[in-house]
Specification:
It is built from 7 helices and 23 strands. By secondary structure, it is an alpha+beta fold.
Length: about 525
């Protein structure tokens, strides 16, 4: 009975491979699948007849599949595994006593011959050896060398003291580069814990599944500023880890939130304030219930002169405001006299969610200066009372970078939700989804846009803060550049003045196929 069931399984696999392989061959594809399908069908037939030749035929299938896979992808384990893993497991099954012993034949003289396991066993052993060898290889590794030190005239994007970290990416350029040099490859193994601090904010049973700790601490002078998943802001002595103050925003635990996290706070020092005066230095805390709270950086007290008694309500101007669907997980950028902030929305939950509008507020008072709504991108004047932003317009949940000299802030954009349904998207939505957008810091007007996925149906938001740096060409000219990584693993290198590519971008044909009401982009 076992051998019959095995033969049926092989026959089904053979029919599937043969049918699909025939269609693929007619389309100009590889002949392997048709050949492999015929091999499975012949193996199934011989198993039904209990012929020893079944093991020989399947040994040829394994050997041919191994040769084809190596020819196609080389010794790349992650690509070899899907091509041969099931085939090897089926071969090992054929070598078990329950399958092998009934196979054979009786000669005219009455002698009984059993199937030899050696051909299939040797080929299977060879395949396992190839698999083990491929696990030690990395065909995609591209070796490179970094210079030992930064060029003397490198533009790091701000006057941040070497031992400090003032923004999410350390400076407005988002390079995440630290010039500190006491810790080196030769002594890093000798590091010892100097202090540790427990925030006390832990994931609770009633929390949403995506409750995560993602903070990048800021270090300003002798203080570290952090936030926690439930939106506590904490100041620590950088030398000792001693807590200076803690503020709990009481953002609650709404079960409809998709994310419960805080990537960081924003630090700002008022250049016009007298040193030591209340709120002369501030920390702005974004929360998961769509608030932005201004705190005195020295003691954690709320700066009541900002917005509504210290609290800016980010849900204002939204046509739809389902609780738990809109929040700020990333710190805003502070540039000049303004805070520029986006917001995250729940993916794929509803067609009536909040807007993805990007807004600039006065950093002292919280008054709205401009708003850029990707669903209505040409109107950036503050939204009049009684009007609303575009529902479900593409949002930006990640971190911005900016070049104050050029007067531009760079926004990594997501999609209109539901992310994976592309019907009914407007011309503006199609243009700004999954892109990097440069906005005028003063007015919010679009200066350029570079899209990374056309008609995105796969939630391929641009997820990371763009890094700004200056690139010296071979002819000696210096180009202000932007480096934008994407979820696809592509890295766009653009002139940050215009969005034009420094490294060429190719439009290549993309696979089609969508539900009848939708379509996919051709490239």
């Amino acid at each position: 009975m076992v051998i019959v069931l095995t033969a049926v399984v092989f026959a089904v696999i053979g029919l599937a491979l043969g049918g699909g392989g025939t269609r693929l061959l007619l389309l100009g594809g590889s002949p392997y699948y048709l050949i492999a399908g015929l091999g499975f069908l012949l193996t199934a037939f011989l198993l039904f007849r209990r012929r020893a030749a079944a093991l020989w035929v399947y040994a040829l299938v394994v050997l041919g599949s191994l040769a084809w896979a190596i020819w196609e992808v080389g010794f790349d384990w992650w690509q070899l595994g899907p091509r041969g893993g099931v085939i090897i497991l089926l071969g090992l099954w054929l070598l078990t006593p329950w399958i092998r012993r009934p196979l054979g034949f009786v000669s005219p003289t009455g002698e009984q011959y059993r199937a030899s396991a050696w051909p299939l066993a040797l080929v299977s052993l060879l395949s396992v050896g190839v698999a083990l060898y491929s696990m030690t290889q990395d065909p995609h590794d591209i070796r490179g060398d970094l210079p030992g030190e930064v060029a003397a005239n490198a533009n790091l994007g701000g006057n941040v003291p070497p031992g400090e970290w003032h923004q999410y990416g350390r400076t407005p350029f988002g390079q995440r580069y630290s010039p500190l040099d006491q810790i080196r490859p030769e002594n890093v193994a000798n590091l010892q814990v100097a202090w540790q601090y427990q925030t006390g904010d832990v994931k609770l049973p009633e929390d949403v599944s995506e409750t995560t700790y993602q903070v990048t601490p800021l270090k300003v002078k002798d203080t570290l500023y952090v936030c926690t998943p439930h939106n506590w802001a904490i100041a620590l002595d950088a030398a000792t880890g001693q807590e200076k103050w803690k503020y709990d925003s009481n953002s609650g635990m709404n079960p409809d939130r998709q994310h419960q996290t805080c990537r960081g706070v924003t630090y700002w020092a008022d250049p016009a304030a007298a040193p030591g005066s209340p709120c002369a230095e501030r920390v702005y805390l974004p929360t998961s219930d769509a608030r932005l709270i201004a705190l005195d950086a020295t003691n954690g007290e709320v700066c009541t002169s900002f917005a509504d008694n210290g609290v800016l309500h980010l849900e204002q101007g939204m046509k739809h405001n389902p609780a738990g669907y809109y929040y700020s997980t990333s710190p805003p950028v502070a540039v000049g006299d303004r805070l520029i902030i986006g917001g995250a929305v729940n993916d794929n939950y509803s067609t009536t969610e909040q807007s993805g509008v990007i807004r600039a507020f006065n950093i002292n008072t919280g008054a709205l200066i401009w708003n850029w709504d990707s669903g209505n991108p040409d109107v950036t004047a503050p939204l009049p009372p009684g009007q609303t932003y575009t529902t479900n317009s593409p949002n930006s949940w990640s971190v911005f970078s900016y070049d104050e000299g050029l007067g531009l802030v760079y926004i990594p954009m997501g999609n209109q939700v539901p992310d994976q349904l592309g019907m009914g998207r407007s011309e503006h939505v199609e243009k700004y989804s999954s892109s990097i957008v440069a906005l005028d810091i003063n007015t919010g007007a679009v200066r350029w846009v570079r899209q990374t996925v056309h008609h995105d149906l796969w939630d391929m938001d641009v997820p990371a803060q763009p890094a700004l740096l200056d690139i010296t060409r071979e002819d000696g000219t210096v180009v202000p550049a932007l480096v934008g990584p994407t979820k696809q693993g592509d890295i766009y290198v653009l002139d940050r003045r215009s969005g034009e590519p420094i490294i060429p971008i190719e439009e290549v044909p993309a696979p089609g196929g969508a539900i009848p009401e939708d379509f996919t982009a051709p490239t």
